[in-house]
């Protein structure tokens, strides 16, 4: 018997006594009884039989835990072993002991409801007849239901159906479910505790989901909703929601600020739902984005399970019928489902996974791993006991939601059937098999820098309104950002409070919130901007001209390539509240900002003295003002690039590059650079960012010992991949040029009439970007600063209009500074003509580059002709 037990005991089990080859392994902790130790063999003859020791009066049985006998003498154990219901292992895991108990089987079938509910179902005769036996602690429940002490509170109960409905929105969840669902909204009837759950993509869908719920329940019950209890979330406080409630005669009951306990029914429902979802998810190996199916399954089960608040089940009170539970199965278990069509040689069924109960059809949801889809079928053969024998999956389940936060005054002074139907494809990304070989990127695309791997934690949950900001978890940071913005308005004397002149309309404004990321993609600034609704401005009255230049990216690359060659200093500055520096020539009136209305002058409006974000002329006003100021400091504007300035004093020189509020100072004389920074700080509120490292979503790497500068857009690419849910996709092998300009040029032609093939092509581009995101442009290593151009053309690449494709690139200091890949504007009759057109376009670009670098005045041979290479003799001739 000892040998049999040894073969069945798992080596990693920590709380059993193992006997192996004469060695003794003691159970950890205290051992009850004095005769549990097995004497170590003192002889060398292991085949010699020794008499079995007899239990003492205080010996404890490991099977039934009674005193006076051991397990091998236990009547219960011998009887169960005779029936074949237990293995000879005396101390298997609790879950395996539980697996044999019908009560635990129903505990899992019913979505891990508690034991009292199962006892009541058993007592009421709703479950199959069996001897109810308590089960040990469910490990899945421990993983999913650990809670704090409950809040004690008493409230009046409704006396009829639909008299009071509790509702709440939960989300956004940390993992996006199918169809991009991130939120869910619950509606619970107070009298019956019958609940509905709807999945949503955005909180703004709450109103439509309520109308859907209202129409369904009022038509089903034949009564109308009288009260709707919710928190003060912005989704319930919208104008259209309030107007609808008034039209329907529904009285809203809003919880006091900071007391979500008063909406305890909904809060408890949300917690119960998520607890049970986590429990069920932890018992399977399904991807976490199946939480939507688990949630709908739990809502279905809870309506058929007993509640402390009611004597009958919610389903019985709601429908007047006793619920049937015989069809319930363990969520996540495998099942064999009959195929719709099969030939004589293929199997008639397929192994799938049960993932829910459809509302519209009497049947089950099944997930087919091979076809990667979810479908509906009337029945199947469920492998529940095999599923339970596997135990808990052990996978960690992190379903997080943003909790409601206390609100505060907006005043700045107060700081506070065998018929199967395909439902949908499921985007499951299989695990990638990776080679252990160390991969190296080509040196022509990068140079080695010492840096940590980027750890991205992008958070796109930015408030859309002032109300959302004060209700968000980061409300203190948003409040601080708004106060900083208001102080900037005051410091720049942007407006005066006046009475609105007769016949004049004041434009409105809104708060815009933005999280700014550092070069590694981490949130480091919460920014709030007060923006005027400039779309209501009238041309000729409120504004005239609006054009304002910004520096071109190719100009930045050219100046950085030169800086790498001469080892110039590259410093960066940022203009705070940049548009507030522009002067207005028109009389403009604006309402006071939301949340910051002056209580003593509530009826007055803001007469704008300076430009403000959102005004059509704001950017132009700022640029004109900056141009005027910077020329006072001795800077001269470049005629070819209006946002590039130069200041020279003998051999010392400084270049200034302006992109709205981002400034680069590049030069060879540190005192002159310091003087330029000081001058800017006198006239504008500036932020000194030191040596340039990240500008316009471009990360700058520098190796000054080798005179190298690298430009990377890995962080920006990660943002794009995250936005389109491609950040965990396979890395593409599609051979593209590093700048993907040709691929974008071709795919962009089909934006007006997209198809699946076009979407697949775009996804391939994103996959390619994911593979090559860590490659970057590298400037440096050239002996001379020469501009070289290369041009080419593809003949009649567009079969619809027979137009050709032009391509050209220009290189400076070892790397590309300018490139273009676009369809030609006319039809070429031959490849020679197509390449001649491409060379003509490249020549125009070469002329512009030559003029630009001549004005820079730092390249000795700048006035020399630019070499332009073409591979067609006819075009060259």
Automatic annotation (TrEMBL):
Residues 61-76 form the CCHC-type domain. Residues 25-57 are annotated as: Disordered. PANTHER family: RNA-DIRECTED DNA POLYMERASE, TRANSPOSASE, PUTATIVE-RELATED. It comes from Paspalum notatum var. saurae. The lineage of its organism: Eukaryota, Viridiplantae, Streptophyta, Embryophyta, Tracheophyta. CDD domains: RNase_HI_RT_Ty1. Residues 146-322 form the Integrase catalytic domain. GO terms for molecular function: hydrolase activity; nucleic acid binding; zinc ion binding. This is Retrotransposon protein, putative, Ty1-copia subclass. PROSITE patterns: INTEGRASE (PS50994), ZF_CCHC (PS50158). SMART domains: ZnF_C2HC. InterPro entries: DNA/RNA_pol_sf, GAG-pre-integrase_dom, Integrase_cat-core, Retrotran_Ty1/copia-like, RNaseH-like_sf, RNaseH_sf, RVT_2, SH3_retrovirus. Keywords: Hydrolase, Metal-binding, Zinc, Zinc-finger. It holds the Pfam family RVT_2. One of its GO terms (biological process) is DNA integration.
């Amino acid at each position: 018997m000892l040998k049999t037990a040894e073969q069945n005991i798992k080596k990693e089990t920590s709380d059993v006594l193992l006997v192996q080859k004469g060695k003794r392994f003691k159970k950890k902790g205290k051992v009850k009884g004095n005769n549990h130790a097995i004497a170590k063999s003192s002889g060398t003859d292991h085949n010699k039989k020794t008499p079995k020791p007899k239990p003492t009066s205080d010996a404890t049985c490991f099977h039934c835990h009674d005193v006076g006998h051991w397990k091998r003498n236990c009547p219960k154990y011998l009887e169960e072993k005779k029936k074949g219901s237990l293995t000879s292992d005396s101390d298997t895991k609790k879950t395996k002991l539980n697996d044999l108990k019908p009560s635990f089987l129903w505990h899992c079938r019913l979505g891990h409801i508690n034991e009292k509910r199962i006892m009541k179902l058993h007592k009421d005769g709703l479950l199959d007849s069996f001897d109810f036996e308590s089960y040990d602690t469910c490990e899945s429940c421990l993983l999913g239901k650990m809670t704090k002490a409950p809040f004690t509170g008493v409230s009046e109960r409704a006396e009829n159906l639909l008299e009071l409905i509790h509702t709440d929105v939960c989300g956004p969840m940390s993992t996006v479910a199918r169809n991009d669902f991130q939120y869910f909204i619950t509606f619970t009837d107070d009298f019956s505790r019958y609940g509905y759950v709807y999945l949503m993509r955005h909180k703004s869908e709450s109103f439509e989901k309520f109308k859907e719920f209202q129409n369904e329940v009022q038509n089903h019950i034949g009564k109308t909703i009288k009260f709707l209890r919710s928190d003060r979330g912005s989704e319930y406080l919208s104008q259209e929601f309030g107007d609808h409630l008034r039209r329907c005669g529904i009285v809203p009951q809003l919880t006091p600020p900071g007391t979500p306990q008063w909406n305890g029914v909904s809060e408890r429902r949300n917690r119960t739902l998520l607890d049970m979802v986590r429990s069920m998810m932890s018992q399977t190996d399904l991807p976490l984005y199946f939480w939507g199916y688990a949630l709908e399954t739990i809502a279905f089960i809870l309506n058929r399970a007993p509640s402390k608040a009611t004597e009958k089940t919610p389903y019985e009170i709601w429908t007047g019928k006793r619920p049937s539970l015989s069809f319930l199965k363990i969520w996540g278990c495998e099942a064999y489902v009959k195929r719709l069509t099969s030939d004589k040689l293929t199997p008639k069924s397929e192994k799938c996974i049960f993932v829910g109960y459809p509302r519209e059809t009497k049947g089950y949801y099944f997930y087919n791993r091979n076809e990667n889809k979810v479908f509906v079928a009337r029945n199947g053969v469920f492998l529940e006991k095999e599923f339970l024998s596997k135990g808990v999956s052990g996978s960690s389940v992190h379903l997080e939601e943003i909790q409601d936060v206390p609100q505060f005054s907006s005043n700045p002074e107060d700081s506070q059937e065998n018929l199967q139907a395909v439902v949908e494809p499921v985007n499951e990304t299989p695990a990638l098999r990776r080679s252990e070989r160390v991969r190296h990127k080509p040196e022509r695309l990068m140079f080695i820098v010492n840096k940590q791997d980027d750890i991205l934690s992008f958070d796109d949950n930015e408030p859309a309104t002032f109300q959302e900001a004060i209700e968000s978890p980061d409300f203190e940071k948003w409040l601080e950002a708004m106060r900083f913005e208001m102080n900037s308005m005051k410091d720049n004397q942007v407006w005066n409070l006046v009475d609105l002149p007769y016949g004049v309309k004041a434009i409105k404004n809104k708060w815009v919130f933005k999280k700014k990321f550092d070069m590694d993609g981490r949130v480091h600034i919460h920014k709030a901007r007060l923006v005027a609704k400039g779309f209501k401005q009238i041309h000729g009255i409120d504004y005239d001209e609006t054009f304002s230049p910004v520096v071109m990216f190719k100009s930045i690359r050219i100046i950085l390539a030169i800086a790498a060659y001469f080892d110039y200093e590259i410093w960066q500055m940022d203009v705070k509240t940049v548009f507030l520096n522009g002067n207005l020539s028109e009389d403009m009136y604006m309402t006071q900002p939301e949340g910051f209305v002056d209580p003593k002058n509530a009826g007055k409006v803001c007469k704008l003295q300076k430009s403000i974000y959102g005004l059509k002329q704001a950017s132009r006003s700022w640029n004109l003002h900056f141009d005027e100021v910077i020329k006072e400091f001795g800077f001269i504007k470049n005629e070819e690039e209006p946002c590039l300035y130069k200041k020279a004093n003998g051999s010392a020189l400084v270049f200034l590059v302006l992109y709205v509020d981002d400034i680069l100072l590049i030069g060879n004389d540190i005192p002159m650079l310091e003087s330029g920074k000081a001058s800017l700080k006198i006239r504008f509120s500036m932020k000194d960012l030191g040596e340039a490292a990240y500008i316009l979503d471009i990360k700058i790497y520098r190796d000054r010992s080798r005179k190298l500068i690298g430009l990377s857009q890995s962080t920006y690419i990660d943002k794009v991949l995250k936005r389109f849910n491609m950040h965990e996709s396979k890395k593409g092998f599609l051979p593209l040029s590093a700048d993907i300009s040709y691929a974008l040029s071709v795919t962009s032609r089909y934006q007006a009439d997209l198809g699946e093939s076009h979407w697949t092509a775009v996804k391939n581009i994103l996959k390619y970007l994911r593979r090559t995101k860590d490659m970057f442009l590298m400037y440096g290593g050239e002996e001379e600063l020469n501009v070289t151009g290369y041009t080419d053309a593809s003949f009649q690449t567009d079969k619809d209009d027979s137009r050709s494709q032009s391509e050209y690139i220009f290189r400076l200091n070892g790397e590309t500074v300018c490139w273009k890949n676009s369809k030609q504007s006319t039809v070429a009759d031959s490849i020679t003509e197509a390449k001649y057109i491409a060379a003509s376009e490249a020549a125009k670009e070469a002329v512009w580059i030559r003029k630009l670098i001549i004005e820079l005045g730092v390249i000795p041979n700048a006035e020399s002709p630019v070499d332009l290479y073409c591979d067609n003799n006819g075009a060259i001739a």
